[in-house]
Amino acid sequence: MQNSSIDITKQRQLVGNIIIAVLTERINVKKGLLLFPKGIEDPSIHAAWHALCHYEADEDIKAKDIEYNDQQIELLEMIAFTFKDGSPLPQNIIDAYKPYYREDPISYKEGIRGAIKRLLRFVNF
Fold first, then answer.
1. Among 36, 53, 56, which Cα is nearest to 45's?
2. Where are the domains of the chain?
3. Are the C-beta atoms of residues 29 and 56 closer than 8 Å to each other?
């Protein structure tokens, strides 16, 4: 169990660094999403992945509404700083993104087992 918590801590720290790289424009959002660890069961990491997806998807809204843009940036900054020491996200943020978890590609591990799980997703409604 101790080893598992260390792995989650390191994965959260990695994700925090990815988010900072996106916010500082060292990498684009698409690259950042691709760098997220795969096969992770941590709800905090899943919520962070979806927050970054929404940041990318809402590009047109952010261009028109500076306050909305600032809120999204603040959320991503908060996630990155929370992950700096490997801490989990507050439950309200996890809950806000929970309905989307079933569809996110980071749920699936790399390799043949992950490919089979992704294919079965379409069979199981």
1. 36
2. 2-123
3. yes
